[in-house]
Amino acid sequence: MGGQTLVTGVIGSDTHIVGNRILNIGLEKAGYQIVALGALTPAEEFVDAAIETAADAILVSSLYGQGELDCRGFRDLCVEAGIGDILLYIGGNLVVGKQSWESVEQRFLDMGFDRAFPPGTRPEDVVAALEADFARRGAGGRGD
């Protein structure tokens, strides 16, 4: 599979880029076109890049524990920009303190993300999720 365009980056004031780079390498090997925004990326830049590149999905990384704050309203930004149906993933160390993954995951799903991945998720697990979600949505990726 693959071939779809994915916008990736590290949101907010987070500078932890290594995991995001490893993910990008795995996604490229799986045949995806990557638009890598790097670190310190505001939510608006993810949305702008997705529009400019006609991306099929946005994959947000956060490792410094502030993902919940940085991602509030992310889906709303997508809706306001006319890409409310874009596939939206998040992964990393998303909250401060020790919390059950199930509660963290549910919080991000409630925020409008299609999937949330815990720290240590392997790129092949993200590829498998993308393949399943794109297959479910149809060839266009956005449910069209």
TrEMBL record:
Which of UniProt's keywords are assigned here? Cobalamin, Cobalt, Isomerase, Metal-binding
Isomerase as a keyword of this entry, yes or no, is yes
- EC main class here is isomerase
Please list the residues that bind adenosylcob(III)alamin. H16, S61, S62, L63, N93, L94, V95, V96, G97
Source species of the chain = Sediminicurvatus halobius
Q: Which terms in the Gene Ontology molecular function aspect does this entry carry?
A: cobalamin binding; metal ion binding; methylaspartate mutase activity
Write out the pathway annotation from the protein's UniProt entry: Amino-acid degradation; L-glutamate degradation via mesaconate pathway; acetate and pyruvate from L-glutamate: step 1/4
Organism lineage: Bacteria, Pseudomonadati, Pseudomonadota, Gammaproteobacteria, Chromatiales
Subunit-level organization: Heterotetramer composed of 2 epsilon subunits (GlmE) and 2 sigma subunits (GlmS). GlmE exists as a homodimer and GlmS as a monomer.
Statement: the UniProt record of this protein carries the keyword Cell inner membrane = no
Q: Report the HAMAP family cross-referenced here.
A: Me_Asp_mutase_S
Mind telling me what this protein is named? Glutamate mutase sigma subunit
Report the catalytic activity: (2S,3S)-3-methyl-L-aspartate = L-glutamate
EC id? 5.4.99.1
Query: Where on the tree of life does the source sit, at the highest rank?
Result: Bacteria
Q: What does this protein do?
A: Catalyzes the carbon skeleton rearrangement of L-glutamate to L-threo-3-methylaspartate ((2S,3S)-3-methylaspartate).
SUPFAM superfamilies documented for this protein:
Cobalamin (vitamin B12)-binding domain (SSF52242)
InterPro entries reported in the protein's UniProt record: Cobalamin-bd, Cobalamin-bd_sf, GlmS
Q: Which cofactor does it need?
A: adenosylcob(III)alamin
**Can you tell me which family this protein belongs to?**
Belongs to the methylaspartate mutase GlmS subunit family.
Instruction: Give GO BP annotations, semicolon-separated.
Output: anaerobic L-glutamate catabolic process; L-glutamate catabolic process via L-citramalate
Q: Which residues form the B12-binding domain?
A: 3-140
